[in-house]
Structures are given as C-alpha cells and as structure tokens.
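Pasting as-is:
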Amino acid sequence: MGTKSVRLDDEAEQALEQIVQATGLSVSGALKQGLLALRARLEQQSTHTPYEIYAKLDLGPGGYAIAPSTDVRSGVRQAVARKLGKKLKR
C-alpha cells in the first residue's frame, strides 16, 4: 500500500467534504470509491479502432461485380445486354 500526497483545489476539497459527510466514508475511502468508479467508466467506454469497427461490419459476400471499376463502360454494356437479353455490338 502506498502513500500519496494530493493537492485539491477549493472546488474539489468542498466536494470531498460533502461526500465524506454524506456517506460516512473516510477521505481515503471516498477517494478509493471515486477511483474505482472512474476505472469502471473507462472500461465501459468504447475504445475500438476504426479497423475493428470495419471488421465487424457485414458487407455481404461481395464478388458480384461484372466488370472492374476501371472499366465501367464495359460493365454497363454487359448489364444492359443482360437486361435486354441481347448481345450488343462494340
């Protein structure tokens, strides 16, 4: 167990006094409860990286493109031909 020296401003000192009086805890007990509450809150906060969120997304099976994005013109021709049931001339 360690001993810590802490400086509190007037607002924090007043809050600590109110907490001690309202709960009947010692100063050390009140500070310990505050630290534990803050730790619990931090554990609940989302700390996911953008990649972790992306990895959880269900983007479907994929692989359904009929042409690469670099050849949109060909893909549009193929899509129209499929829809009309024809073979289009180039």
